Amino acid sequence: MPTPAELVKALQEGDRRAASRLITLVEARTPEGLEALRLLYPLTGRAQVIGITGPPGSGKSTLTDKLIGYYRTEGKRVGVVAIDPSSPFTGGALLGDRIRMQSRSTDKQVFIRSMGSRGALGGLSRSAPDAVKVLDAFGCDVILIETVGVGQGEIDIVRTADTVLVVAVPGLGDEVQNIKAGIMEIGDVFCVNKADRDDAGKTVAELETWLAFVDTHALGWTPPVVKTIAERGDGVADLAKALASHREWMQQTGRFEARRRERGEHEVLETLRYRITEAALTDPVLKESFRELTARVGAREVDPYTAAEELFERWRKAHA
């Protein structure tokens, strides 16, 4: 097995197998995976990262496929991280997005990786941001992240993507109500897909009205609403231009750097939480304490908040 340094070197030389191996490595969260991430991080930060989210049935995968085609006509290398829901029973995932985008499999300038959510909340896999880093270091000009599509709590995408595209579709009843509870507030660009349906104009009007009266973008950006018919490719060029306009606006206003700083803060905190949790589950001293305290919580002898505080104190004393 090549070392992380050897894989990163091969990645920089354009080796697709190295990209695939690195994503597998960082997804496993092994010490080798963490070493790979340390080596990769200085090579990242150049790609345009676009998150694509919205309710199930809105055509996110088809739209993603058409955006790949558009960016390829511009000569750009495209990376895709497609998140599929994992079974809560087996942990397995269908990974059907590769099937929908299989026509791109022969294009050496397109790299598609499907990942199971593995129980992670927020619409993303826990390892998705790390996969983005691999594709960024691989030289992808554009990275598209397609979320699970639960339509309620997909806020993690704003911590990973530079621009968030929210996809809506006519015919789901009250369209705005169907998506605003979780993701309306994080959308930078909105798309009404399947716009050949009779009620598409009503959906557009509702979105534009909501965006005009709700002050979610106080910094001066008004999210545009673009109509598309993804199956035919209609409106995809206009959508790509709207996504590019948002990136330009962010760079001109300093919001681009601000969002990436926020992302850095989040990544540090998430890594810290992961390491502390890992210690609680694997440390020879704390592992037994964890079992003891959780058993007492289950027996109602102690509340979970006190148990967590006690575990933290034991961890602190053990590493003082």
Describe the protein in words.
The protein has 320 residues and is of the alpha/beta class. The relative contact order is 0.11. Helix 1 packs antiparallel against helix 2, helix 10 packs across helix 11 and helix 11 runs antiparallel to helix 12. Helices cover 49% and strands 12% of the residues. The chain has three domains: 43 residues, no CATH class; 209 residues, Rossmann fold; 55 residues, no CATH class. The protein contains twelve helices and seven strands. Strand 2, helix 5 and strand 3 form a beta-alpha-beta unit. It has a seven-stranded parallel beta sheet, with helices on both faces.
- Total domains, how many? 3
Number of strands: 7
Q: How large is the radius of gyration?
A: 21 Å
Q: Do you know the CATH topology of the largest domain?
A: Rossmann fold
Strand order of the largest sheet: 3-2-4-1-5-6-7
The share of residues in extended strands comes to 5-15%
Q: Please summarize the sheet with the most strands.
A: 7 strands, parallel
Helical/strand content category: alpha/beta
The top-level CATH class of the largest domain is Alpha Beta
Low-confidence stretches: 86-94, 118-123
Write the layout of secondary structure elements.
Elements: H1 4-12, H2 16-28, H3 31-40, E1 48-53, H4 60-73, E2 78-84, H5 97-100, E3 110-116, H6 128-137, E4 142-146, E5 163-168, H7 175-180, E6 189-192, H8 200-213, E7 225-227, H9 236-253, H10 255-282, H11 284-298, H12 304-318
